[in-house]
Amino acid sequence: MAIVGEKGAMRQWSRSQRQCGRRIALVPTMGFLHEGHLSLVSEAKQRAEKVVVSIYVNPGQFAPGEDLDVYPRDFDGDVEKLKPLGVDIIFNPRDLYVRDSPEKNGAGHETWIRVENLEKPLCGGSRPLFFRGVATVVSKLLNIVEPDVVVFGKKDYQQWRVLSRMVRDLDFGVEVVGCKLVREADGLAMSSRNVRLTATERKNALAIFHSLKRAEELVRSGETDSSVLIEQAVSAISHAGGRVDYASIVDQETLQSVDKVASPSVFAIAAWFGSVRLLDNVELPNS
Amino acid sequence: MAIVGEKGAMRQWSRSQRQCGRRIALVPTMGFLHEGHLSLVSEAKQRAEKVVVSIYVNPGQFAPGEDLDVYPRDFDGDVEKLKPLGVDIIFNPRDLYVRDSPEKNGAGHETWIRVENLEKPLCGGSRPLFFRGVATVVSKLLNIVEPDVVVFGKKDYQQWRVLSRMVRDLDFGVEVVGCKLVREADGLAMSSRNVRLTATERKNALAIFHSLKRAEELVRSGETDSSVLIEQAVSAISHAGGRVDYASIVDQETLQSVDKVASPSVFAIAAWFGSVRLLDNVELPNS
């Protein structure tokens, strides 16, 4: 397993692999890897002969005042976790953006990709430039690594939809794979940010998962009214001391709110416990 | 010379060429080819073993009310012009955008690339979404054709700068080449739109070129005040019956206006003659 930091060296490796007819899979991450990430790597191994995992905390998707500075990092630990999985390359660039400087005279990075509809609902409400940063950095990674397949987790459901749409709309020559959300034994959605929860917050945060499970059961027993499903979730999470950013039932494809659970939809929640914002979602059964 | 209309077939051809180690150059055009385009093809031939010319009038860069419907087209004539030049593929897609439709439920094309600073001055003033459309379609073409080198004309100076910046910022693995503007025998900048000028407009439109030449001479003889240079041009073009959209002396890299011609700068003009908007520019000598 090699660690590559330079864009040029990364692309050169990929091109030489493809020249030999080998398929390459890319798993983009921000590091501090957990079982969720490792499941993406396993999926990547199934789909290509060569696997590249990128580890890069993308400043382009953090707004001022968000948690860029305290985002957890453990590069050496990540390397240890990836070693046994048969990963070929860890792409770990120091910085992917051209920085502005007085000498450059306003010629810093200024190109941004907008997925104009899908970026707006859900996380887009409280993080209006978040998906602009995500789409831009993933397009850079696709252009540098030139993979045949790219693997994302559906835990970041909107991100997966945004990036799938971007790949389709900009005709990137890559297959997009979305993998199932992975949970801790007790049900909490795995996230690099979970380590920033106190023990109490960690316990209380389970309310998100439980309320989603409850919604799933209610749908199975015939409830289709989104507002009823949302209300029980917001109430349960608030009762557990969480602050709901959003709790929305949306169409799986367009991410537009639905009043009734009739077509394929997803119940997506973002909620704060202490200083940590957590995401979770379930795809609801069609009634 | 083959004519390819499907994205998949186009990419497959490129990949098989690159698999064999051959370099590919792309010349993106909107067709109705003139000597300016053909000079780009010659440059492409110098730089790669295989040359793809795309012919696609990109609806994404025309605003409602602009001249999309009357933009000149002559596909058969273009084919005849390209045949003797040793072009390998004409990529002529019917439509590059996924269209929205009631069945698709709002899942039409929605991804756009913004080069946020360079898109604003010059043509960006009267055509605020023009470069958004240009950048987006060129990124699509780069992703479909996957060339090693892409060739643009510097007649569309801002477009060349915008696309160079996009390629740098998004890490496209392609070399960008800008080619010198080509003029008619009398000096008029070659443009597909020139055929839409009446004989009188055609003659009057030469005022653009003459005023740029005059500016160049004034700079050579020591004039560095942008406002003086601009004034003589606006006055000459207006006097010839043209309507100036902009006449700006800007830094070659940032496209920001400069008061004095001191650093590398370019004098760019857009002016209407009749119903036709013409562009022209000269890179000014450093004084």
List keywords for this structure.
homodimer, 287 residues, alpha/beta, Rossmann fold, Pantoate--beta-alanine Ligase, Chain: A,domain 2, six-stranded parallel sheet, 9 helices, 21% strand
Give a description of the structure.
Two copies of one chain form a homodimer. By secondary structure, chain A is an alpha/beta fold. Chain A folds into two domains: 2-179, Rossmann fold, CATH 3.40.50.620; 192-282, Pantoate--beta-alanine Ligase, Chain: A,domain 2 (2-Layer Sandwich), CATH 3.30.1300. Chain A has nine helices and ten strands. Chain A has helices spanning 7-19, 35-47, 75-82, 123-126, 130-145, 157-169, 199-204, 206-220, 226-239, and strands spanning 2-4, 24-29, 50-55, 89-91, 111-115, 149-153, 175-179, 243-251, 265-273, 276-284. In chain A, the strands form two sheets. Chain A has a six-stranded parallel beta sheet, sandwiched between helices. Chain A has a three-stranded antiparallel beta sheet with strand order 8-9-10. In chain A, strand 6, helix 6 and strand 7 (175-179) form a beta-alpha-beta unit. In chain A, helix 8 runs antiparallel to helix 9. The longest helix of chain A is centred in the middle third of the chain and has 16 residues, at 130-145. Chain A is globular and about 55 Å long. The model of chain A has no long low-confidence stretch (mean pLDDT 96). Chain A binds chain B through residues 7, 11, 18-19, 21, 96-98, 105-107, 109-118, 135-136, 139-140, 143-144, 146, 165-166, 168-173, 251, 253-254, 256, and chain B through 7, 11, 18-19, 21, 96-98, 105-107, 109-118, 135-136, 139-140, 143-144, 146, 165-166, 168-173, 251, 253-254, 256. Strand 5 of chain A pairs antiparallel with strand 5 of chain B, so a sheet runs across the interface.
